[in-house]
Amino acid sequence: MKDVFITKIAKFLPNKPISNEEMEEKLGVINGKASKARRVVLRNNQIKQRYYAIDEHGNTTHNNAQLTKEVVEKLCDENFKTKDIQLLSCGTSSPDQILPSHAAMVHGYLKNGNMEINSPSGACCSGMNALKYGFLSVMTEQVQNAVCAGSERTSSWMKSDVFENEVEHLKDLEDNPILAFNKEFLRWMLSDGAGAVLLEGEPNGPNPLKIEWMDGYSYAFEMDACMYAGAEKKEDGNLKPWSEFPADEWGKKALFAMKQDTRLLGANILVKGVDSLKQAYAKHGIGPEDVDYYLPHISSYYFKEGLYNEMEKQGVPMPWEKWFLNLEHIGNIGAASIYVMLEELVASGKLKKGDKILLHVPESARFSYMYAYLTVC
Fold first, then answer.
1. N or C, which end of the chain is more exposed by having fewer CB within 10 Å?
2. Cα angle value 47/53/56 (rounded, 5°)
3. Global confidence as pTM
């Protein structure tokens, strides 16, 4: 088996940063009324700015595949061109269409020649699953290199017109708010962007990182869906998919809006996250003392203190000085977040040879978690 190294990292954040006060202008006002939930959600998540693939006139500047194409090209130079890529593995929770796959669309924009592609589905963990596929492919010498990416273009899912049809059908219902909180919650949480890495079997480049191992854990066998799109959650906790609704109901029920069961999220995301972390530690014979930089993808700073406390409670405390976060100024870009976080850490100049980095990515869709353990070469 070959050792596998991250030899290049890139990020692409579209357009200029968007402040909290500009968000509703970009995404649109629902039913002509300013959101009551926006300030509550923003106060809790503490995100100060984020990026949208929307210009100053409200027009879309990039689709998801174009965002990914841009970040892949940033990995390339005179010595490594897009035509040299042997495997393209791209994860996202917000593909531009159901078919063709996301990676196929990115490959179409690259126009770089024949190669293998892979499109893991899911939410935040899809970016890590894309990385693991590349990791295993290089490790087993199926390919000599792989480009792995995570990206999101959720702004198109959060625009007001996605919800307006539903609003029209709620106006006559006395006991319903204009928009249920679990649907509006994610409007103020998610944003756009892409991150990518180049994997090779040799420690090339100025800042190579060796991937020691990657692990994943799913709790779907015991947990209901928590974040979902293209479905409606029933009283018994099961999802009824869009394909089982008449077409004229799709807009009325805002079936394609992303939704979050916030009560299920708060009660379980941290407990299961630390439980899976302990399993990863035990499997590989390490602990918090073997980590120099801890990069957790948290959707909101609301969970930061809670995660710290839960790790203490379960006996695996992580000192604050090891944490590295960038949510406040980058925003929550789902599958891309961990790539952009790692890119920023490497660019900071803080790393030294031998440092150990732990990537920790949760996915609330049905509670799954991915880990990667890296060594600075």
1. N
2. 95
3. 0.93
For domain 5-155+188-207, is the CATH number 3.40.47.10?
yes
How far apart CA 173 and CA 160 sit, in angstroms, is 20
pLDDT in tens, 23-61: 988 888 776 777 777 888 898 889 999 999 999 888 999
Give the residue extent of every domain in the chain. Answer: 5-155+188-207, 214-226+262-376
* Tens-digit pLDDT profile for residues 144-193: 999 999 999 999 877 766 655 555 554 443 344 434 455 567 788 899 99
Give the full edge-to-edge strand order of the sheet including 293-296: 116-118, 87-92, 145-153, 192-200, 5-12, 209-218, 368-376, 356-363, 293-296
Q: What CATH number does domain 214-226+262-376 carry, 3.40.47.10, 3.40.50.2300, 3.40.640.10, 3.40.50.300?
A: 3.40.47.10
Tell me the DSSP string of 60-128.
B---HHHHHHHHHHHT--SSS-GGG--EEEEEESS-SSSSS-HHHHHHHHH-----EEE---SSTHHHH
